[in-house]
Amino acid sequence: MSATKPAPELAVLREPLREIGGEQVLAGLTAALSWLEANQQEINDLNVFPVPDGDTGSNMYLTLRSAVEEARDAPTPEAADSVLAAAAHGSLMGARGNSGVILSQILRGFAQGAAQRVNLDSNGVALAITEASAVAYRAVMKPTEGTILTVVRDAAAAAAAAAGTTDDIRVLLERVVTEAHAAVERTTNQLQVLREANVVDAGGFGLAVILEGFARAVGDTPPTTPVPALLRRSGEPALRLPPNPGDMEASGSSAARRGAAAVAPREQGWGYCTEFLINGPGLDVDSIRTELSALGESALVVGDPDLVRVHIHTGDPAGLIAVASSRGRMSKLKVEDMSAQHHDVLMRADAEEAEAEAEAIGVATQEHPQAPPKPIGVASVAPGKGFRDIMTSLGADSIVSGGQTMNPSIEDLLNGVRAVNAERVILLPNNGNVILTAEQVDPLAEDCDVRVVPTRNLPQGISALLAFDPGASIDENVERMQAAIATVRAVEVTHAVRDTSVNGHDIKLGDVIAVVDDVITEVGSDYVEVIDAVLKAQTEKPELVTVYRGDEVSDEDADALVESLRGTNPATEFELQAGGQEHYPYVLSLE
Amino acid sequence: MDIDADAFYTKLEHSDVHPTTSQPSPDAFAALYKTLLADPQDEVVGLHISTKLSGTLQSATLAAQEFDPARIHLVDTESVSGGLQLLVRAALEDIKAGENAATVAANAIRRRSKVTILVLLDTLTYLHRGGRIGRAQAFVGSLLNVKPLIAVRDGEVVPLARPRSRSKGIDMIVQQVRGCGPLRSLAEFHAATAESMVDLEARLGAAVSNVTAVLGRIGPVVGAYSGPGGLGVACLGAD
C-alpha cells in the first residue's frame, strides 16, 4: 500500500483510548453505515460476472442499516454488549444476499465476544473480532478463501496480535483496518474467478469499508484512504469517503472531492430518510430510478414493473413524494428525520392499507391467515408478475418478491413462510444468492418446520414446484424436488454490463451472454444466435425448451425468436411464457 | 345416434358440448339377470366399475333385489377401463379352472387392491369438466403445459406427477410399473391413435418381459373423461 497513511506518531501523541462503551460502539456502527453507503455502488460494481446482478454493496448496506436501526433502540444504550446484541438481531432480520447473511454472522460473533461487557478494552475488542471471525466461518458450510471470510479472519489475527502489544484501541483498530485492506488486496490472487476478472472480492472490500468507518469514528482518526487500484481495471481509487464531515478529514483526492460535493445538501443535518413502495403495473424501474435519484442521495430503487421499493435520503420529502406518486399508487410510506436519533415518523400511510398492500404485493397469499394451518405448503421467491402467476398456478402458497439485484431479506422470507399458514413449509429461493438467506429462516419460524430446497434459478424453482405433492410428507417432497431440479438445465440470457474476460470469452459491454447453470458459455451479438449456440452445444438434446421472456421483451419479439429456434431445432418442442423478470431478457429451461 | 370411437374422439376434441355418460338402468340389469339366471343351476358374477366413478353398481344392486341374493355376486372392483378388463380376464380364468361363483367374486375382491391404473393425459380439461377430477384437482390451473400423470387408486383419481413432456411421462409410467413387483397381467390402452402407443409399448416391453400386454383402446365412456390423446397402463400384481 503506497497510499497516504496517518503518520504513526499522530496516534502516539494522543491520549490512548483504553475503553469504549455503548455510545462509541453505536457511533462506530453509524459511521460504518455511512462509509458503506458511500461505497455501495463501488462494491456492487465489483462483480465477477459482467451480468447485471451486482448487489453485494446494496445487500450489505441494507443489512447493516437494519443493524444500526435496531442498535439505536438498544435497551441499555450506554452498554457495549446491549448495543451490539441489538445490532446483531437487527442485522439478522434485515440480512439480504449471501454477503448480508455473512455480515450478520460477523455481527453476531462480535456481539457474542462482547457479551457481559459494558465497556470494551483493547483485549475485549480483539476477542470480539476473533469471535466474529469464528462465527462467520461456522455459518458457511464450505468456507472459501479469498472472500469476506478471509478478510475477517486476517483482521481478527491483526487484532489479537495488536492486543498483545498495546492497550490503545485506536492503535489496535488502525492495525485491523490496515490488515483488512491488505487482505482485500490479496483476494484477487486467492480466487481464480477474481484473478480472471481482475477485481478484489466485493464482500471483503465491503467489510474493510465497514471496519474503516467504525475505526475512524471510534478513534476519531483520519482515514487511511485513498486505497489505490482496488478496481484495477479502471485504475481509480475505489474507496469513497462518506459525506459526513465528522467521519473524515479533507484531503485532495478525487474521492474526497466527490465526498465533499455530496455533503452540500446535508448542511441542515442528515435530511430525511424516505421509504415507500410504488405499485404497478407497468412501472419503468430504470426511469423511476433516474428521476428519483436526482432528488436525493443514496437512492435505492429496486423492483419490477408491478412493485418498486424506494429508499432515498432527501432534504425535500414532500417534493419527492409528489414526483413518486405521479408514477403509481404509493404505499408503506415512511419518512424519518435522520438528524433525530430516534425515528420521528412524520407520516405513515394508513396502517391497515399499507399492511393490506404489502400482503397483496410483497407477499401474495392464497390462504386466509386465520384459517387453521394446513399440513404442508410452499413459499417461493419470484421476480416479475409472470413468474409469480406461473408459480401460483403450480401450487405455490405464497410468493416472496425478489430475485436478481433485489434479494429478499430474511424477514421478507420469514413473512412469506408465515403467509403459507402451514405446519411445514418448503422454501424455494430460486436464486443462488438467496439460498443462504433462506437457510436462516427455519430457526426464526416458531411452530413451523421450514425446509429449503436449494433452487439456484427460476427453472429449477418451477421444476421443484411441479414435483410438489401436497399429499406426501415433507421428507418425500424435499427428495422429489431435489431430484426434479437435477433434471432441468437453466439458461439465463442477458447483456454484459462491462468489458471483461471470463471463461476464455472476451466480452464487450453490451454483448449478449448466456449463463448456463451459473457458467458463461456463449457470447454473441444477438439472442437467437447465442441461444441457438447453447442448444447446439447440448450433448443430450432437450425435448422441451420453455422460454420465459423478460419484461423488456415484447410478445412479438419473443414469438419471432421462438419461431426461429423451432426452425433450427426441429426435434425440440418450444413453449413461450411471459416471465416478467428484469435484467434477463430471456430465461430458458431445458428438459 | 351411434358413432364409432374415432368419430367420438374427433367430436370430443372439437365440440363445445361435453358428452355426458350414464350408467345402465336397473331395468337393463334386471332383463340381463333374467336371461342369465334362466337355468336354475347358473349364477351371476358382476364385476363393476368403481362406485366412486359411476353409479353402475347401484343400478345392478337395485336390479338384483328382485332375484335370489345367493345367485348374484356383485363386486365393486374399485377399478375402471383397462384395470377392470384385467380383473374380468382373471375371473374368466378362474371360471375356466372350475371355481364356483362365490370364489370367483371373492378372488376379484382380493385382487382389486393389486390393480394399478396409470393414465398420462394430454390435459386435465376433460376430467375436470366431467366432474371426475378427485384429488387431481391440485393439478388444475397450471399456466405451464404439463401432461398430468394420474392414477386410479381405491377407485379414485389421484394425481401422481406433472411431467412436462409425453416422453418424461412414459418414463414415469415405466418406473411405476416396475415398482409394482411381479405381475400377473398388463394392459396398455390409448384414446388416440395406435401410433401414439409405439413408444410406450417399446419401453414397457423392455422393462417388463414376463407378461404380454393386452392392447386396447379407451372406450368412449372413460374417454369422455380422459380426453383425446390420453394413454395408459393397467397392471395386476401376481396372486
What does this 3D model show about the protein?
The complex is a heterodimer of chains A (591) and B (239). By secondary structure, chain A is an alpha+beta fold. Chain A folds into four domains: 218 residues, Serine Threonine Protein Phosphatase 5, Tetratricopeptide repeat (Alpha Horseshoe); 83 residues, Alpha-Beta Plaits (2-Layer Sandwich); 124 residues, Rossmann fold; 100 residues, Hypothetical Protein Tm841, Chain: A,domain 3. Chain A is 46% helix and 18% strand. Chain A is built from 21 helices and 18 strands. Chain A is globular. The N and C termini of chain A lie far apart (51 Å). The N terminus of chain A is likely disordered. By secondary structure, chain B is of the alpha/beta class. Chain B folds into two domains: 86 residues, 3-Layer(aba) Sandwich (Rossmann fold); 123 residues, Hypothetical Protein Tm841, Chain: A,domain 3, CATH 3.30.1180. In chain B, the strands form two sheets. Chain B has a six-stranded mixed beta sheet with strand order 5-4-3-8-6-7, sandwiched between helices. The chains are: A alpha+beta (591), B alpha/beta (239). Chains A and B meet through helix 15, helix 18 and strand 17 of A and strand 5 of B.
Task: Please name the defining characteristics of this protein.
heterodimer; A: 591 residues; alpha+beta; Serine Threonine Protein Phosphatase 5, Tetratricopeptide repeat; Alpha-Beta Plaits; Rossmann fold; 4 domains; six-stranded mixed β-sheet; five-stranded antiparallel β-sheet; 18 strands; 46% helix; globular; disordered N terminus; B: 239 residues; alpha/beta; Hypothetical Protein Tm841, Chain: A,domain 3; 2 domains; two-stranded parallel sheet; 9 helices; 38% helix
